[in-house]
Design goal:
This protein has 465 residues and is of the alpha+beta class. The chain has 15 helices and twelve strands.
Length: 465
């Protein structure tokens, strides 16, 4: 095939988009073809390291010897095109050469809004896959830390990296995760949340058994415990597999603070989850079916407030919960400069106006406000708390305290039935693992990794004598 036919073949394979450049490169003894996506390539490096190098008079056709840029070769035009669309510079000169001269605009490393900390690293993942890989490699400078990549998406060809520590992670889980990722057959993957839904075998469950984080130190810690990380190009959210339910009560700060404070905060998160899920339903159950459980003074206040409202307390709480969700959604979608102001002012105005208009009582506003504040303590369980809050509200309104107790049993049974790639999410039962549960023991006493996750190397490094 002559150079003109090869040009037409490459041009047809890459398409006619305005940002794709395919051009002849005239040399002293031959003619090559350059192909790249405009905006992906550093033009200064292109002119200096590629074009300038191979146009020298002493160029003998040896690409690797003439240029200082990192290069590789591929055998087929399909591989050639795929790598060009991923940001490589393509050069055809008898063979398909690829040069890594990628340079594009990307967001700077910043502290993630959803995982603010008072102590510890402030850096967070970005949308750039290479940057995210570097952030993890800085935490785990070990040859055992493996990062394998694959392409997912027929149209997007999104690069997905599977990271794990060889010798600690369970090889069976690693292979199972890779196998499930290869089975994903979609047009494109824009965010790791899409991968999570394809990996989750219980789509109607409120808990997936797959963790997510935007902080490299948290992901690195989970990798050290034997978990697998999935880093998707184009998103700062990194998945970790498997995730145990108790991990939702832990943060990276727990290990940076002293023991008593770290343990106290874990108990506060557990209380926050309980209040957020159970308080509305329990309040309705007690006031409707078992008012004798309340102090007389508080019961009198409730009776007076209910006497001035047209709806039962269950309807009042449901109304305020729905208003709360609407305010949260509007605050999320609006620009930051006005989103927080709208949420706060909206909540104050609506709550005060509803009480003054006699639609809801003041005790009901306090119950929903306490529920809302408690739900912010564990943002990772937002879906869990939102769904089960309404479920327990319904059970409390229909069956009272008995319905609440039955609902707790059902939730525990459901959680016990969920596993993440063969690891039950409630599997935190051994004596050594309980040292890092709701009660956090001193770091030197945390000698063992979770036994159901780390199969290769259970014992952590110990202090030197």
């Amino acid at each position: 095939m002559n150079i003109k036919d090869k040009y037409l073949e490459i041009r047809e394979a890459l398409g006619t988009s305005f940002d794709i450049t395919v051009e002849y490169l005239a040399l002293k003894k031959d003619t090559g073809i350059l192909a790249y996506v405009d905006g992906f390539i550093d033009r200064d490096l292109l002119n200096r390291d590629i074009i300038g190098a191979i146009r020298r008079a002493d160029f003998d056709g040896n690409i690797s010897g003439a240029t200082s840029a990192i290069s590789k070769t591929v055998q087929t035009i399909d591989e050639f095109v795929t790598e060009i669309l991923s940001g490589f510079l393509g050069l055809y000169l008898g063979e398909y050469y690829l040069f890594d001269l990628r340079k594009w605009e990307k967001r700077d490393i910043q502290s993630p809004d959803a995982e603010n900390v008072t102590r510890g690293p402030k850096e967070g993942f970005t949308e750039d896959l290479v940057t995210n890989s570097v952030l993890l490699r800085r935490k785990l400078r070990n040859t055992s830390f493996i990062m394998d990549s694959m392409k997912i998406g027929k149209q997007s060809n999104t690069t997905v990296v599977i990271g794990y520590i060889k010798g600690i992670a369970d090889t069976n889980i690693v292979e199972k995760v890779k196998s499930e990722l290869r089975k994903i057959n979609v047009d494109g993957v824009m965010e790791s949340g899409k991968l999570e839904q394809y990996l989750d075998k219980r789509p109607y469950s409120t808990v997936s058994g797959i963790g997510v984080s935007q902080k490299p130190d948290i992901v690195a810690k989970r990798l050290l415990e034997g978990r697998i990380a999935i880093v998707c190009d184009g998103t700062p959210h990194v998945l970790t597999i498997p995730e145990l339910f108790i991990e939702n009560f832990k943060t990276a700060e727990d290990y940076y603070h002293r023991v008593l404070f770290g343990t106290f905060m874990r108990f506060m998160r557990f209380i926050g989850l309980s209040v957020s899920v159970l308080l509305p339903g329990l309040a309705v159950a007690v006031t409707t079916y078992n008012p004798e459980m309340l102090p007389v003074s508080y019961l009198t206040t409730i009776i007076r407030s209910v006497a001035n409202t047209p709806f039962p307390e269950s309807i009042e709480i449901l109304f305020l919960i729905l208003m709360l969700e609407l305010l949260k959604e509007s605050g999320t979608r609006l620009p930051k400069t006005i989103g927080s102001a709208v949420s706060i002012v909206g909540a104050l105005i609506i709550g005060d106006a509803a009480v003054r208009a006699g639609i809801v009582g003041a005790p009901t506003v306090m119950i929903v406000a306490l529920t809302a504040v408690s739900s912010f303590i564990i943002p990772n369980l937002n879906e869990f708390t939102t769904v089960y809050r309404l479920v327990f509200l319904l059970l409390g309104a229909l069956f009272g305290v008995i319905g609440i107790a039955a609902g707790i049993a059902i939730v525990l049974i459901q959680l016990a039935s969920i596993d993440s790639f063969g690891v039950p999410i409630l599997s935190y039962v051994s004596k050594s693992e309980l040292k890092d549960s709701l009660i956090r023991f001193p770091l030197p006493e945390l000698e063992y990794r979770p036994r159901n996750i780390a199969k290769g190397n259970i014992r952590r490094s110990r202090w030197l004598d």
